[in-house]
Task: structure prediction
Amino acid sequence: MAITAKELAARLGLSPAAVSMALNNKPGVSTATRRRVIEAAREMGYDFSKKAVSREGLQGQLCLAVYRRNGAVVGDTPFFADLISGVSVGCKKARYDLVIRYLYDDEDFPDQLYTLESSGFQGIILLATELDAPGLSRFSRLSAPLLVLDAYFEAHDYNYVLINNIQGAFQATSYLISKRRTQPGYLRSSYPISNFEERADGFYKAIRAGGMSTSKSLVHLLTPSQEGAYADMKALLDGGEEIAKCYFADNDLIAIGAVAALREAGYRVPEDVAVVGFDDLPICEYMDPPLTTVRVPAHSMGETAVRRLAEMLEGSEPVSMKVEIRTQLVRRKSV
Result:
């Protein structure tokens, strides 16, 4: 007879809450405790496929697995809250129970994958914003259908739902060129993820379309957070770095931090320097001046991911797809 989580807690001398957090990859327990619980659960025959009782009429459980390498990009922001909300709403519409798991890229990552594999989910949506191509290879062991959300990797044959980053960056940069009639600079994330790489493609594509040389765009590498971008930009300004007349930023947080540093140094926005961001966070509308940015329908992206995974589970569409969600340029007063 398989051991229960309560019995496992008693044998290990741990609280049931600590055992539950360890088994479900939730924060709140140490790496050593999580590993101890996982190893004991295997040895004592704990049934990892045991799921909470589904409500009447549900087709089963889907998992949103949120991968975090170091949390530099995936965090407690309105964008990701809206994305996760879209996944939740999509699951309700498709009549699936939703379980959210967080995967931390530390030394016990194989144990976290084992728990995910053993949980018996009908399908898994992997929020892969901070993932790279080699990291995605580690998920090949999963037998449940897997959909990759908010990232794309050419070498891996999965279904993908993501932002049309190239289109958004191209539109934003083209808008800067049309309004300022000068070579845009680039406030580029110092943290490399696939979304930012695609935005770089869109930026340089617009530069070429505008008849300009890509080598002549000033590029500043900034931390992709508001505080980090401010500190990095301030250091550049204090060091006498050459400043462009206008910039495209990889995300709004970079743009907001850079604008704060520029204004502190005496630059007027947009008179001296124009800036366009990406994501359309709620704060953009209330900045001084309000930030021109690229709006991403994150909620719709989450719902689309669930619909696509449901199609995969039904077998109605056997071909792998890359679904890109279009963006929209929001014109405000920073340009």
